[in-house]
């Protein structure tokens, strides 16, 4: 197999020139095989508050122009280890959530690569988990979010950005011995939200736990729970404090710093990561690309973990 084709060389073509693919990588149709595909899902019809995450994929691609090829903290050059390419966007119906969920699942299943998906609102995690579970069986889940997203329905709707992980448990997509939320905080509808979440099998590391226990202890606990299981990581960018990610639809005070989030992700090196998403970037509320840059770095770290795994 030929050497991976990497990003456009920023010493020859200025990084602010040309149309944006993720990290200035080639498109999937420009390479002969793909190990890791970055795919956008510009869908936000499942939101309960501010809309705008449909523009997330484009914003994260723009925010990824400054990423460089070597990751010092993980000691890996992800784009040289494996072929990473940008698969463009999945076109789905903004007027029919059920149809969009089907479209996303089938598109995800049709891409012959491990996916790092850029949302889009959190509704899209359900079809992505369906695709992952079809390939790997029930997966362990690390869910970074201010919110539980295990609510039942909104206005009677089952597929929304507040409900994907309840649906995923109901559909048997998750290995419920190994499902955890990280970074939750903020007011709930009632105490029963937590009881129901626990009943579904979820463990919780709150945002305050990360601050009190520290990153290393949290990583140890999460890794123990995950063990050797195939792992899906879903990152709702609102897990970050609004100071670190203002550009999102349902912001909650008291969140993680981007440094804490990136360090927890780096602590997952060696896990059997099989797919990941970064969702809920809504650029209309962003400032100076703070959120888009944070999300681009999160995606870069996820890709680096996948590159390290594939190379083993
Ligand atoms: N941002 C996500 N995914 N979910 C937030 C749902 C919060 C709510 O509607 O009460
Ligand atoms: Zn959230
Ligand atoms: Zn969420």
Automatic annotation (TrEMBL):
Its cofactor is Mn(2+). The keyword Metal-binding applies. GO terms for biological process: putrescine biosynthetic process from arginine, via agmatine. The keyword Metal-binding applies. Keywords: Hydrolase, Manganese, Metal-binding. Mn(2+) binds at residues 122, 145, 147, 149, 236, 238. One of its GO terms (molecular function) is agmatinase activity. It comes from the Bacteria. Pfam families: Arginase. Gene3D superfamilies: Ureohydrolase domain. Belongs to the arginase family. Agmatinase subfamily. This is Agmatinase. It comes from Thermocatellispora tengchongensis. The lineage of its organism: Bacteria, Bacillati, Actinomycetota, Actinomycetes, Streptosporangiales.
């Amino acid at each position: 197999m030929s050497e991976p084709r990497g990003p456009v060389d920023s010493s020859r073509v200025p990084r602010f020139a040309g149309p944006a693919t993720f990290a200035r990588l080639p498109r999937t149709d420009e390479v002969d095989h793909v190990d890791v595909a970055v795919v956008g899902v510009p869908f936000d019809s499942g939101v309960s508050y501010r809309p705008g995450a449909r523009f997330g994929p484009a914003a994260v691609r723009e925010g990824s122009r400054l990423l460089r090829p070597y990751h010092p903290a993980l000691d890996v050059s992800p784009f040289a280890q494996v072929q990473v390419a940008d698969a463009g966007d999945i076109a789905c119906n903004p007027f029919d959530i059920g149809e969009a969920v089907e479209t996303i699942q089938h598109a995800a299943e049709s891409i012959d690569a491990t996916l790092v998906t850029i949302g889009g609102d959190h509704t899209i995690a359900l079809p992505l988990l369906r695709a992952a579970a079809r390939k790997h069986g029930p997966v362990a889940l690390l869910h970074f979010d201010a919110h539980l997203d295990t609510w039942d329905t909104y206005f009677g709707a089952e597929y929304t950005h507040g409900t994907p992980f309840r649906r995923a448990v109901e559909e048997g997509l998750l290995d419920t011995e190994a499902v955890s939320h990280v970074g939750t905080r903020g007011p709930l509808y009632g105490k029963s939200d937590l009881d129901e979440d626990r009943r579904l099998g979820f463990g919780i590391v709150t945002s305050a736990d990360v601050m009190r226990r520290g990153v290393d202890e949290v990583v140890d606990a999460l890794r123990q729970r995950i063990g050797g299981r195939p792992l899906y990581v879903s990152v709702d960018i609102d897990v970050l404090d609004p100071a670190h990610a203002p550009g999102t639809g349902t912001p909650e005070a008291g969140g993680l710093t981007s440094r804490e989030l990136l360090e927890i992700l780096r602590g997952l090196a060696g896990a059997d990561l099989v797919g990941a998403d970064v969702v809920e970037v809504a650029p209309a509320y962003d400032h100076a690309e703070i959120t888009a840059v944070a999300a681009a770095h999160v995606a870069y770290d996820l890709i680096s973990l996948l590159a390290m795994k594939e190379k083993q």
